[in-house]
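Box 3.1 — From sequence to structure: Hexosyltransferase
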Amino acid sequence: AVAAAMRLGAVLSALRPALPLLLGLSLGCSLSLLRASWSHGAAEERCLAPGPPAPPARGAPPEAAEGRPGPGHEDFRPRIVPYYRDPNKPYKKVLRTRYIQTELGFHERLFVAVLTSKATLNTLAVAVNKTVAHHFPRLLYFTGLRSAKVPHGMVLVAHGDERPIWLMYETMNYIHQHFGSDYDWFYIMQDDTYAQAEQVKALVTHLSINQDVYLGRAEEFIGGDEQARYCHGGFGYLLSRSLLLKLHPHLDSCRNEILSVRPDEWLGRCIIDFLGITCVSQLQGQHYHTYELAKNTELEKEEEEDFQAALAVHPVSDMTLMYRLHKQFSRIQLDRVYQEIQDLQMQIRNLTALTPAGEAGVTWPVGINAPFLPKSRFEVISWDYFTEQHLFSCPDGSPKCELSGASKADVSEIIESAVEQLNRLYQPLLRFSKRQLLNGYRRFDPTRGMEYTLDLLLEAATQKGHSHVLAKRVSLVRPLSKVEIIPMPYVTEATRVQLVLPLTVQDLDFVANFLDMFAMNTLDTHDNALLTLLFIYHPYDAQRVGQVDVFAGVKAMIGELEKRYAEVKIPWISVKTEVPSQVKLMDIVSKKHPVDTLFFLASVWTEINMEFLNRCRMNTISNWQVFFPVHFQEFNPALVYRGEQTASSSTDFLRDGHFDRHSFAEACFYNSDYMTARTKLAADILDRDEVLESMEVFDVFLHYSGLHLFRAVEPGLVQKYTLRSCNPRLSEELYHRCVLSNLEGLASRSHLAMALFEQEQANST
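Predicted structure (token representation):
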């Protein structure tokens, strides 16, 4: 018994430190079980309680009382619509729209119609087109003239009847027929109206498209109902799409039943009689401000609040007044923007002081992104040095070149801006004038814009007439502006591509591979592409063509392809020349094809594929853009792999090589664009055909076309390594580019270094 008591005491003494933990766990488990039983009991009582259900909250829908979302929330719940096709109906392929915006039923925001006449088409209408037309997304001019001569840059719709009511009727019909399903808002104005385009666009963004809107300057009908109003046409008015759709069926009745002299009154009466909607000047908290311009008004001194807030000003009597109004409102808008920028900068300073970084966290300029911070030495953005006459970082790689063109204008503008800012900061105590630019630096920072650092030699004049020469360093930033989408003409992927392949004797070893790739990627896939070969004979080979034709093997390959593909014809053209100028060769090909032909000027090392041909079609736009791809050139496998492997695997795609920026051999362009540029070139060089030997097709488009030159790397054009033969008869620049292309295409720096290292090791042993 004593031994048992001693053992029990030893166990209790061992468990005594853990006793509070055990008691806490036991108490916690007990309380949790007790709480669970209470909750379960309450739930059972609530479920089994007899009697009617509790009434829903006041204002809540019945569905909400049952735990289901109300009718207002059903639209936000995703629904799966099962696909069902009637087996009794024939299957019809679904054609998807090209743009998701069309498939989802999105509409453009605003369409603008300007009513003009014979007397004002070449005056006020032109002034409207030059001042505000480019601010609206879509603007058309409507007139009653027959076969009117359209001024440059304007889209005119002529109805052929100058009666005002008929013009309004035809205009409303035309808008509904051609644009009724594409736009949400329609703004109608006259050519003697000045409209603030940005204000009108801002107005429609704040209005709901679900209402029938007839908004403008409300006027009373003469002798009519006091409650009815029409919108004065001279100040413009806004119609919603829903109102236009409801109004269109009644336009014929309005034309036959409503008599009026003024077209705006006629339209207002039509809307009131058939739709019961009157014109309003205020809607959904938005005001349509207008200003009636008096004669002999001094616009520069006009500071009335109604004038500055006006969306439309009427009447504008002549073109000069229209331009003066545009200048005045542009100045007002610019002042507002500058004031808004200052207010935002002040708010940023005040808020930044409350952050952990304090005032040190304020970037310069305030509100602009901080400069880019490089993570490695390869990311450091270098500065370009310049003076007022020269630039020391030239596009062609030369160390010094003359400052001209856009760069010269940029430097002049930034120096003037620096002096202006200094005068604004120190006047009236000091007045600065520039003597000389000592040093200039600039760099492009992609996170904020173009940065400048200028060392200026200035002459500072005081109020008492004393002057002093001093040097001052200033820093400026030209920030990146708002990114805008540039409208581009529509192109299609179904365009036929005409491949042009020039061949010399040195290219014979690579023709077979080119034809095999062409057959596999275009003929087998039935791609809409054709091929024309240019056989370039040396004069000596041309004399012996009757005995030995150097291109006989290639012609045999073409014959085999034409037998294999019966519907395919591959023509060739024979040319005799010592200097195969790219321009002269294209002159021959261009004359043998229609003007709407899309050419792809290829090289024998090019491996044709469908992916690139589609990009050639999409990136080449007639009368707008030409495409010069930069192909990917693989390195010399003897230097890259050094016997380890002989071919790149799929994971090494576009790795062991580089994009050859020295080559301009590949090009996509339309024949019409080439012919236009070539005509200008011929007028410039007259009969000096030797100039063509120093030019490529790229130079023709660059200097004589005025088109967009789209030069981009093309991963779809991959060329195997080969040592190109450079013709010394070509110009010095073309020969130098060919040599550089061969040298840079050998291998990367690391591969060349390893090859030299291994060679030195072998020589040392």
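Summary of the box: Confidence is low (pLDDT under 50) at residues 38-74.
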